[in-house]
Automatic annotation (TrEMBL):
Transmembrane segments: none annotated. This is acylphosphatase. Its EC number is 3.6.1.7. It catalyses: an acyl phosphate + H2O = a carboxylate + phosphate + H(+).
């Protein structure tokens, strides 16, 4: 199992980014969270299989129709087991 931490920069607040990310993550069977950050970016922490995490990452590079993603920072790590039971919006 892998863990992917994303920081998405651009016009990502007020455009249903978190809602869309949760829908994609749930459809892919991922657990974790998505949240707005005070500096205007969105943070995603997701856990699951690598292929599903890559699909979520690819979606985050585009986002929902009203978003304008400028840059996505990503960090990967190996984990023993999931630390979450579902994918939440904070």
């Amino acid at each position: 199992m892998r863990c992917l931490h994303l920081t998405i920069h651009g016009r990502v607040h007020g455009v249903f980014f978190r809602h869309g990310a949760r829908q994609v993550a749930e459809r892919l069977g991922l657990v974790g969270f998505v949240k707005n950050c005070p500096n205007g970016c969105v943070e995603v922490l997701a856990q699951g299989d690598e292929e599903s995490l890559k699909k979520l990452r690819d979606w985050c590079k585009v986002g929902p129709p009203l978003a304008r993603v400028e840059r996505v920072e990503e960090e990967w790590e190996e984990i023993e087991g999931a630390n979450f039971k579902e994918f939440k919006i904070f």
